[in-house]
Amino acid sequence: LALHDRADGGLLATLAEMAFAARCGLDITLDSLGPDVTAALFTEELGLVLQVAEADVAAVLTQFDAGPLAGHVHRLGRPTAERQIRVRHGGQTLLDTDLFDWLREWSRPSHVIQRLRDNPACADEELAQTLAPDARGLYLEVPPTLEPLAPPALTLKRPRVAILREQGVNGQREMAAAFTHAGFDAFDLHMSEVLDGSRSLADFDGFVACGGFSYGDVLGAGSGWAKSILYHARARDEFAAFFARANTFTLGVCNGCQMLSQLNEIIPGALHWPRFLRNRSEQFEARLVMAEVLPSPSIFFAGLAGLRAPLVASHGEGRASFAHTAQRACLRYVDDAGAPAQRYPQNPNGSPDALAGLTTDDGRATIVMPHAERVYLTKQFSWLPSEWRDVESPWFRMFANARRAVG
Fold this sequence. Notes:
alpha/beta; nine-stranded mixed β-sheet; four-stranded mixed β-sheet; 22% strand; elongated
């Protein structure tokens, strides 16, 4: 059920970290590790702490006894619902402490450094979330109206989607894989090919502007990418003609979201889109966050309104800044109660109203800051709710919806 090595901090640090992650107590007895309690708790030699279900203990020990580790496996104790960490040896209780008292001390150095390095208010908000005893963490809420995922209609022709990238973009492979899995033929398209006229958007049913930092790790790179289109006559006409076609779709993710937001003057129904500025935390954010799909005309989120599920955030400039009143929101960050997340890190960038994605009036063009392409399969998640049994995660429906939209 869980596994952690003891080579960095020893057994006590290992057990504490496992308890912190699970927000549970521990009842530990060290007798089988010998008389030297200090060595048992703090030795950093090779070793693993393995948690198994009670029903599997006998089978696991039998396997160990039959191999070279026979005699080196020790039963330490069990996790408990009571949030106390207790350690015993020789009939004496060596430790009996509240989990959150330890977690507060464990978090103190990181919090102090974070307040000096980052936005102090964000550091305080993250510590408060870490120490909240009833924090829900990641969860899954699937709307009851969500219909089972059906395969797309079989056709002899696979729609063509351009996976558009610029120098420094790094999300094209996952994006191509997601669209291919949904029934598209995905084509790598570099901006240099559009600019020199060697390839045309007219050959595609849709295009996706991918994530990563165009032009390397340069802040404001999305703005530079947009200007390379707006100030290049042929490229501007090429993109404007594509957006004007009634049978196309457009998706922008992360850096691609930043870029497309600044093409809003040539995207029908997108004048309300914001610019995206530096995160409120003043740092690059890479984490799993909770996101909720909102009712909208977006073709990507058709039938998904009400879904709340973990989603990958990975950006340095994701804070939306509106020149106009926000409209056509399709995705937002949510907190433990499912409300719009107002505090860090549940709102990873400080966007007003926790907005994470917007669409156009007709829903054919959508921009989102988080990365659904990085979690379109359940095996891509670092944490997975037990309810998810399918190969595809609920976020795969974004790509399946695009496939159905083009017929």
